[in-house]
Predict the structure.
Amino acid sequence: MKLAHPDYAALVKEVRRQLAISQEDLAREIGVSYATVNRWENGQAKPSKLARAQLDAFCERMTAEGMLELP
């Protein structure tokens, strides 16, 4: 799921909506803090290179399991 210049706020919201998980749950899944996910979702920050890789891997895993559909 390598997106050139993704809108991370929209991506995080959509992932959480489709999976019906909280910001805390997503943070736990990808190994960051709740506050970090909150800042991404509110457009106050963008994920670091490592966090992007973790988020991408999580999305790929959920897509492979049929739990997530992203464009």
Remarks:
- Helices lie at 8-19, 23-30, 34-41, 49-64.
- The mean pLDDT is 92.
